[in-house]
Amino acid sequence: MKIKLCYLSTYPPTHCGIANYTYYLVNELLKLDQSIEIVIVAEKGSEKIKEGRLTCIPCFSREENYTSDILGLISRLKPDLIHIQHEYTIYGFNNKFFGLLEALKKENLRVIVTMHEVHAPYTPKDKITYGVENLEKNHRKLGEVVDKILVHSDLMKKQLVEYGVEETKIVVVPHGTKIMDENPVEAKKIFGFSENDKIILSFGFIRKFKKERMLIEALPKILDKEPNTHLLLVGSIHPYSSTNDVEELKLRKDLVNNLRLGQHVKFIEKYVSEDEIEKIFGAADIIVCLHDQKFLEVSGSLHLGIGAGKPIVATRIPRFEEVEKISPETTFNVEEEDKMIDIILRLLTDKKFKDNVAEKIKKYAKETSWENIAKKHLKIYREVLGLSSEEDIKSSKKIMLL
After folding, report:
1. Which CATH superfamily is domain 3-176+369-397 in?
2. What pTM value is reported for the model?
């Protein structure tokens, strides 16, 4: 039986983590199951595509009342299931968004929502785009309207349950991982490093709360022990960045100049391509993920590091919950700068320790490969649609033969 899936999402070339997430997921699903046809109802700025069983139609804008644009297209498409890749800054979480959900349900459509972030009571108030008093009410309402809610971590699920969402409605599906295997020596040469240089990578959109200046300030102490160390800071300003993030771009450079670290810090300030990403992560010896905000979300940049099989040093916050599970010995509290330095130096100087951490990372990368994550999605889709899985079909055939 053919299944027509409809994704509501951003999509490349839009510079957005959710666009990349959807790209990897749908392409893996198409490889896994020949019975699937996928249509992406995308935000404007995405590429218009019609290739085989994949269609992408840019049709809505977050700045407008998107409901009629989306509903008009979906009514013509007549999909079997709608999967919304949700982010508060794209769709909001108020009457406009719930009006769309209720209209979809009136059409007797099955609706799944992936929450890429869950606002919690401690989420900074300036990040919440609707009334704080509606946190519990609106999340509980979401659980009542849709068929399933997918989240990327146990902490995200726990918060939804605390809001009153029925636990059986929530499924934890880890963020997918792209497996990379780049030659580190060749990758280092591309960026002007020698094979003996030790490269510390920080990757992702430039954000004030990423604490990259803390890493720059720590570099002199690291250089005292490992003089061949270099920082590689890669990332651009997000299309919807705040003025604080734009200011951070200048502050990082000023700090490097004031500390006279220019020969040890390399900036790549752009949104990098897929090929460049593999080279960048291939060049890294370790990856540092700093963040001081307790947002209930999971980092796509983190999963790039996981896919590269490199040791990851991270602050202990929900965003990096997976690192605490994989290698708690490489995590620290955001105010513990000395501990961060100690962990980095141990990874740079203790090969046995570094290799042990890397092996645990690689194991988790395989578990969360995009192929495995797509299989989890496919199983959920079949359950929501009331269809038998391939395994069920094979089992029934065996029973009939007996």
Report:
1. Glycogen Phosphorylase B; (3.40.50.2000)
2. 0.89
